[in-house]
Write a structure and sequence with these properties.
The protein is mostly helical and 96 residues long. It has a single domain, classed as Orthogonal Bundle (Arc Repressor Mutant, subunit A). The protein is built from 4 helices and 2 strands, in the order ββαααα. It has a two-stranded antiparallel ribbon with strand order 1-2. Helix 1 crosses helix 3. The chain is elongated.
Length: 96
């Protein structure tokens, strides 16, 4: 049996290394996206900017793959960018 670890990997979602390793083993997860969807690691405020390298390393260790063999985590901003010009015009009223 492997040693249990309690390092926090995803600070935004408070996901520990042990939770990630357990999920990978229990559900036979093989991709960063699969681990992300099951554990929520990488879905917090930073959108995985902090934890993705650690998450990828753990998956590589657990699956006996090289880090560069793993597909990158899907990154989608939580909102669509809006031009400042659009926001400035929002308060304007059309006078006919």
């Amino acid at each position: 049996m492997k040693k249990k670890v309690n390092n926090t990997i995803c600070r935004c979602e408070e996901i520990s290394e042990q939770e990630i390793r357990d999920a990978i083993r229990k559900f036979n997860l093989r991709t960063v996206d699969a681990v992300k969807r099951l554990t929520r690691a990488g879905m917090g405020l930073c959108q995985g900017r902090t934890c993705t390298p650690l998450l990828t390393k753990i998956i590589a260790e657990e699956t006996d793959k090289k880090v560069d063999e793993l597909l990158p985590l899907s990154k989608r901003p939580p909102v669509r960018p809006v031009k400042v010009e659009f926001l400035a015009r929002e308060g304007e009223q059309k006078l006919d």
